[in-house]
């Protein structure tokens, strides 16, 4: 490996790239989780929106986009899919009809109890043999990486820190 982090030669081997490693880890997590959610009819695309709504039901489509880190057109498509599956309803804001709030249906709420054990299972598999201390460091590092990149791009979709709910 070269001398500095900005040296392109350091990244000729993709396993030295944080971006490559996090993307591969994300894809492995997504595949493992989707194997478990699809038995309930939930795709990985729908999953991330449901999870955000389980944390805070009734947020606007824009807020939902920010929470899941995706752009609004993607959120519109996902919400339509969730709505056609009777998992959410879209309710126009009374004060500003351009804003739409997304609410879970009873069916959407019930899925939380059914699907969260799958999250625990996948995380347990993924972190097997890794100490609690190493996991705490990994979380801190990944949050810092996310925050650094959010500052670099000034992209509100990436900025999901505590300061930007």
Reading off the top of the CATH hierarchy, the class is best stated as Mainly Alpha
CATH-assigned fold name: Arc Repressor Mutant, subunit A
Can you identify the CATH superfamily? Winged helix-like DNA-binding domain superfamily/Winged helix DNA-binding domain
The domain count comes to 1
CATH architecture annotation: Orthogonal Bundle
Strand order within the widest beta sheet? 1-2
Residues in helix, %: 55-70%
Query: How far apart lie the N and C ends?
Result: 38 Å
Give me the secondary-structure topology.
Blueprint: H1 18-37, H2 44-55, H3 61-68, H4 72-84, E1 88-92, E2 100-104, H5 106-126, H6 132-153
Antiparallel strand pairs: 1-2
Helix pairs in contact: 1-5, 2-3, 3-4
3D structure, described in words:
The protein is mainly alpha-helical and 165 residues long. It has 6 helices and 2 strands. The chain has a two-stranded antiparallel sheet with strand order 1-2. Helix 1 packs across helix 5, helix 2 (44-55) crosses helix 3 (61-68) and helix 3 packs across helix 4.
Task: Write out key terms for the chains shown.
165 residues, two-stranded antiparallel sheet, mainly alpha, 2 strands, Arc Repressor Mutant, subunit A, disordered C terminus
Quick rundown:
This protein is mainly alpha-helical. It has 6 helices and 2 strands, in the order H-H-H-H-E-E-H-H.
């Amino acid at each position: 490996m070269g001398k500095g982090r900005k040296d392109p030669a350091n990244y000729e081997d993709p396993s030295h790239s944080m971006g490559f490693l996090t993307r591969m880890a994300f894809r492995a997590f997504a595949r493992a989780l989707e194997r478990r959610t699809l038995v309930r009819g939930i795709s990985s695309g729908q999953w991330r929106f449901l999870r955000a709504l389980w944390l805070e039901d009734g947020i606007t489509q824009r807020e939902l986009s920010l929470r899941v880190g995706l752009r609004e057109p993607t959120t519109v498509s996902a919400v339509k899919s969730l709505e056609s599956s009777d998992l959410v309803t879209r309710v126009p804001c009374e004060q500003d009809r351009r804003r739409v709030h997304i609410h879970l249906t009873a069916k959407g709420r019930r899925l939380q109890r059914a699907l969260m054990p799958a999250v625990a299972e996948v995380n347990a598999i993924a972190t097997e043999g890794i100490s609690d201390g190493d996991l705490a460091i990994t979380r801190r590092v990944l949050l810092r990486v996310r925050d650094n990149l959010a500052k670099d791009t000034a992209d509100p979709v990436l900025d999901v820190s505590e300061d930007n709910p």
